[in-house]
Amino acid sequence: MACADKEPHTSAVRPRSYQDESYLHGFLETVGDLQNDGAFQDIILEVEGRRFPCHRLVLSAASPYFRAMFTNDMAESRQKTVILQGLDAGMFGEILSYIYSGILHVSLDKVQALYQAADLLQLDYVRDTCSSYMVENMKVESYNCVDLYKFADVFSMDIVLKRCLQWIYHNFVEVASSEEFCSLSVNQLTEIISHDELDVKEETTVWEAVVRWVQHSREDRLHHLPSILPNIRFNLLTSDDTAAILEHPLVREDPGSSEVIRNVVQKGNPNLKPRVRMTTEMALLYNPEWGSTQPIFMNPREGKYISYSYEPEDIPDSKAMTVTSDNNIYILKYYKLKHEKLLSLSKYNHARNVFEHECTSTVSKEPDYDEDDDDDDLKCYVYEDHLFEVDRILYNFAFTYHEGTNRPLLKMSKYNQHMKQWQECPQLQIDFCGANYADKDS
Question: Within a 10 A sphere around the Cβ of 326, how many other Cβ atoms?
Fold first, then answer.
């Protein structure tokens, strides 16, 4: 019986592509060497009288601005020397250094000029890097945030603009007293003072800032006052404050301003909420052991109780509560989720008039905060809990008693606001002259 010849077995081999990273890096280095040596340069760019010999090909590959200049039928494509307008010679030198090396040097004193040059030359990486650098260094003392805000507004730098506004809102009192504040445009001023997050304790602070801005250039700015005034929340001012504003020389000098104020006051606007730091001094009484979860609010100055619209479920069931020096109200509670003991912190939002969840952290197993856990061989009871602030740091003190030690134990933790979590401090065992704490109810 004859056997059929078998076809030879072949396996499919797919083609692959390889990228030589060393070639790419070496190519850029070679281009930089050609520039340094002055080899094959075919174009001279003149900026503020300084001449920069370059390569058309390299410039076109790096920048859409130069690509359009040298490839379209423009006069510059045929010229040996091209004069560039609207650029700083020093910044253009930095740009050229980046184009030929891929390395960008940024500093606070030149970041705005560098961004401006990159924006003209359409260099996205340089613009993005400058924007990130501005945001990262916004808190540097020597860096003027108002000046940066104006710059970001001109170039529509959304991320930088947003961060600048947040900083200005939070530091409005300081900003309003600076010379840079008076250089704001009327649109920039109204954008700032119209925001809920403005950090002021009294609305009169906003009015005083407006007065300072107008008086800085009275003749040029007084006519803007009627358009600015509706951004002041007259519903947050007392009748005496409003009367004083109506009698202010700026308002009396401009008849339209007093009319605007009277119309705003008459119509009112209940949607205008208190600013972020506006608070009412009050005494707050709250103890779940009274059998009611509803707190009692009272204004000590007026001797009146303050009404509120909370439902009982809107207020966290607390183990401890405190009011900080910044007039923030914190409520602390413990609860158990499966086999974990959790510590929950809520913070009162003055502007929204609600308690908001701040953080949740896991509690260490010792001491055990669950009084009703029958699985524990030895019970650990929390018979006293305190929450308070020292030097703007929030602390939690929990006095506990453990059946095995017959002594109270002080467990302390502090709240890290940046990380939004509790950090445990060393525990302290207390001996009150040998007192016996076996009866936790005593």
Answer: 9
- Are residues 131 and 106 in contact, defined by beta-carbon separation less than 8 angstroms? no
* Domains detected in the chain: 171-278 (1.25.40.420), 316-429 (no CATH)
Of 221-230, 321-330, 379-388, 405-414, the range with the lowest mean pLDDT is 379-388
Do the strands 340-349 and 329-337 form a parallel or antiparallel pair, or are they unpaired?
A: antiparallel
Can you give 119-133 as a three-state secondary structure string? HHHCCHHHHHHHHHH
Distance CA 163, CA 169 (A): 10
Query: Torsion angle, CA of 117/123/129/133, rounded to 10 degrees?
Result: 10
Hey, what are 124's tokens?
């996205």
| End-to-end Cα spacing for the chain | 107
Higher pLDDT, 253 or 403: 253
Please tell me the number of Cα atoms within 13 Å of 398 on its side-chain side. 27
Q: Which three-class secondary structure state does DSSP give residue 411? A: strand
Q: Which residues, including other chains, have CB under 8 Å from residue 160's CB and lie 6 or more apart?
A: 131, 134, 135, 148, 152
Displacement of CA 159 from its chain's centroid (Å): 11
144 vs 170 pLDDT, higher one: 170
* H or E stretch covering 372: none
Rounded to an integer, what distance in angstroms lies between the CA atom of residue 53 and that of residue 51? 6
Residue 235 near residue 268 (C-beta atoms within 8 A)? yes
Q: Say which amino acid occupies 273.
A: K
Give the model's confidence band at 24: pLDDT under 50 very low, under 70 low, under 90 confident, else very high.
confident
Q: What are phi and psi of 194, to 5 degrees?
A: -85, -5
pLDDT at position 431: 60
Please tell me which residue, 10 or 228, carries the higher pLDDT value.
Answer: 228
Instruction: Please say whether the beta carbons of 358 and 346 come within 8 A.
Output: yes
CB 400 within 8 A of CB 380: yes
Coil, helix or strand at residue 117:
helix
**How many residues does this entry show for the chain?**
442
pLDDT mean over 285-296: 60
What does the pLDDT average to over 31-59? 92
For residue 403, what are the β-bridge partners? none
321: β partners: 331
**H or E stretch at 221:** helix 218-221
The Cα–Cα gap between 231 and 275 comes to 12
Q: What pTM was computed for the model?
A: 0.59
